[in-house]
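Priority: medium. Attachment 1 of 2:
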């Protein structure tokens, strides 16, 4: 029997977690690990106790902020890191698996939290139609290892 690599297991979990998202525009999942153990998970959506966008605003999604972004959404990476910190898990030296490369705001949080490595499935720049993955560039500039996932995901369905 072939055992799957941890990278494959964690990325497959991130893809499946993305399916939990209440976002209308994009589903993103994240898994925060340390020493082959999961320390936290997250997916994009509004903070607990607020509105679920797909239920409250099923046609257009949540109201937009002054910059045109979602006014309620917390990104998957932020959710994973916030939950870990809230529960007193040590984030420093961890690896983050995420289905969409981090935006610049998430990159700042990732760096500040002490995440050591980020492995992403799809490009945020390609999704947004921008020239470069600013978050990836930021992380690399300040010494965080970043890799595009190139493993095998076998038991998942396509992301929205």
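Attachment 2 of 2:
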């Amino acid at each position: 029997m072939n055992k799957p690599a941890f990278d494959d297991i964690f990325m497959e979990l991130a893809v499946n977690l993305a399916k939990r998202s209440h976002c209308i525009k994009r589903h993103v999942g994240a898994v925060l690990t340390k020493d082959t153990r999961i320390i936290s998970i997250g997916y994009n959506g509004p903070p607990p106790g607020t509105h679920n966008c797909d239920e409250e605003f099923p046609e257009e999604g949540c109201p937009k902020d002054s910059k045109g972004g979602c006014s309620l959404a917390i990104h998957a990476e932020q959710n994973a890191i916030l939950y870990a910190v809230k529960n007193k898990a040590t984030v420093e030296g961890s690896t983050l698996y995420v289905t969409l490369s981090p935006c610049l705001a998430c990159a700042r949080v990732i760096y500040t939290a002490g995440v050591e490595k980020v492995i992403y499935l799809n490009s945020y720049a390609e999704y947004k139609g921008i020239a470069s993955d600013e978050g990836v560039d930021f992380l690399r500039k300040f010494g965080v290892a970043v890799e595009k996932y190139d493993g095998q995901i076998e038991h998942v369905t396509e992301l929205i």
